[in-house]
């Protein structure tokens, strides 16, 4: 039988979805083996473990497989109770999940579309992303972290805004996370990246710029943009 304590993570260095899982494991002090995937040449292991989406992150715990980063965060929180990530109160838990889904479905999705598009499509995506960020600004106002005094589930869910969004903003010549419009979010990003677990587990910015610049060029070329 598989060792029930054994934890493995299939990941990709530049993925915000993978990093949020790593942050959770590290905040809780869970040791794990990390396996880097090449998503352009997916391993037989990844295809076997995540045949439905064929994406990282994939967590394997004692031989059992969990896919999808938000579900992995919930699994980690329920399996290792120390340093809880989700709030205890059911209403607060539902609210945290709601905002995580808004941040993913509206902010992240549209920030990515804005990065990889031009003209009207880009403008519309920036508008949707900005609107979502405005709602999220209202949630963080007056708080140190989305989780209250410390980092919680929603901080990890939105954490990509601190390190990925500025790179996308730069490469896409846009300013979705504008300090003049979203001062509370910008203050939160500074607090979030100062946490040692986050600070020590961010991909190098210069490598990210190269990676996303190439990815953007390929996507733009496939859409017929220069
Ligand atoms: N909703 C997924 C998204 C995961 C995702 O998109 N992962 C990317 C890496 S950043 C991937 O594996 N892409 C491979 C592919 O699209 O074929 C999650 O939250 O885990």
UniProtKB/TrEMBL annotation:
It is found in: Cytoplasm, Cytosol. GO terms for cellular component: cytoplasm; cytosol. Residues 5-84 form the GST N-terminal domain. InterPro entries: Glutathione-S-Trfase_C-like, Glutathione-S-Trfase_C_sf, Glutathione_S-Trfase, Glutathione_S-Trfase_N, GST_C_Tau, Omega/Tau-like, Thioredoxin-like_sf. It holds the Pfam family GST_N_2. It catalyses: RX + glutathione = an S-substituted glutathione + a halide anion + H(+). The keyword Metal-binding does not apply. Keywords: Cytoplasm, Detoxification, Transferase. GO terms for molecular function: glutathione transferase activity. Its EC number is 2.5.1.18. This is Glutathione S-transferase. It comes from Eucalyptus grandis.
